[in-house]
Amino acid sequence: MSFLGEFAALGTASLWACGSILFTLASRLIGSYHLNKIRIPMAALFLMVMFLISTGQFWPGDVSNSAYIYLIASGIIGLSLGDWCLFRAFVVLGTRLTLLIFAVSPIIAAITAWVMLGEHLAILSIIGILITIGGIWWVTAERQPVNNSQPVQSGSKGLGIILAICAAAGQAIGLVLAKAGMADTLSPLPATLIRMTAAAGAVWLFGFFKGDTFVTFEKLKNHKLIFLAIGGSICGPFLGVWLSLVAVKYTEAGVAMAIMGTVPVLVIPLVIIVFKEKVSFRAFIGAVITAAGVAMLFLA
Q1: Domain residue spans in the chain?
Q2: Which residue blocks in 76-187 are alpha helix, DSSP H?
């Protein structure tokens, strides 16, 4: 189907925008670290149920060893380490600066896909990616009012920058590894299930050695958290990540990452509704630039 990958990437960004609102509310209740330990296993469970309904099996069969290696590595790098670095960067560096740096992820994805998969981008696609990144950067670079600002922790700016770069690289490399794992034979649903299960195992194994397993279980007593986590998990690591693999399977990794990176723009109408924030004319212009870049990616 024409533009299947591009539409899937746009759907991914829309779902992640909705999920980001729900996860923001949930993080205020228990913190991003424990939320990550809850949302990833939830998503793995949802994926397993969906796979059971669609195939009658609990687990994918006929998956090659090389595919398992790529997908497990993708889950650990992209969903466990990458997301941990992203959430930690939000705390250390602040949301705005983190998203500014994170906007380079499409470039990392394009370079990684070129090295690993021999994937080449057309000139129009490269221009579209750069315009899209420019629009995202224009929105996130806007200075926030003092009462809405999120200050950088004293003496931690360097660490925050490293974490944000690692987050961008983790998500980009994770998606390229997932594309390599799917190759031409494995569909996105079983690939996402394997990837998410590996990520769930990694975050809980880390928590076990850290000694905070029971602390996470205690957090689950908050009923409001459960509803927020379920909604966020459906939008984010369940449907969102599933669609992201549909996107990366049917279009170039750099193009998919550029469109999926439009979350800061797509979330604008949501923060107006949910958090009653005022949006500036600059943010509107950034949204227009981003939309132009995405349109160019569809035309490439």
Answers
A1: 4-299
A2: 82-92, 95-102, 105-117, 123-140, 157-182
- Range in 52-56, 112-116, 125-129, 159-163 the model is least confident about: 159-163
| Residue tagged 């959430």 (tokens) | 87
Compute CA 106 distance to the chain's CA centroid, rounded to the nearest angstrom: 12
Residue recorded with tokens 């424990």? 34
Q: How many CB atoms lie within 10 A of CB 116?
A: 15
Per-residue confidence (pLDDT) for residue 144, from 0 to 100: 55
pLDDT in tens, 115-153: 999 998 989 899 999 999 998 888 887 755 544 445 555
pTM: 0.88
CA angle 80, 55, 229 (to 5 degrees): 35
User: Is residue 43 exposed (0-12), middle (13-18) or buried (19+ Cβ within 10 Å)?
Assistant: buried
What are the C-alpha distances in Å from 54 to residues 40, 51, 61, 119, 293?
A: 21, 5, 14, 31, 36
- Supply 154's token pair: 């004293």
Question: Structure tokens of 45?
Answer: 């469970």
